[in-house]
Design a protein that fits this description.
Structural class: mainly alpha
Helix content: 25-40%
Order of helices and strands: HH
Number of helices: 2
Length: about 70
């Protein structure tokens, strides 16, 4: 089970990752896992793997508050 939430600025209590953060986490996990599998298949010994993804989103687009702001990540 994964708890979801929104930050206070979006009228939430920040009790968990919001859906956009969960999406970024899923993408990072997929990319990182794929990298580890390819390394193992090629007999490359890894000592550490870390992935960081960032996304910017102007919530005015996501909330439909502005037609001039793109809805989604940049």
């Amino acid at each position: 089970m994964i708890d979801a939430g929104e930050p206070a600025i979006l009228v939430g209590s920040d009790t968990g990752a919001n859906p956009a953060e969960a999406l970024l986490h899923a993408l990072a996990a997929c990319l990182t896992t794929s990298l580890v599998y390819v390394a193992a298949a090629r007999k490359v010994e890894l000592t550490r793997v870390e992935s960081t993804l960032e996304g910017d989103m102007d919530v005015r687009g996501a909330l439909g508050l502005s037609d001039e702001v793109r809805n989604g990540f940049t």
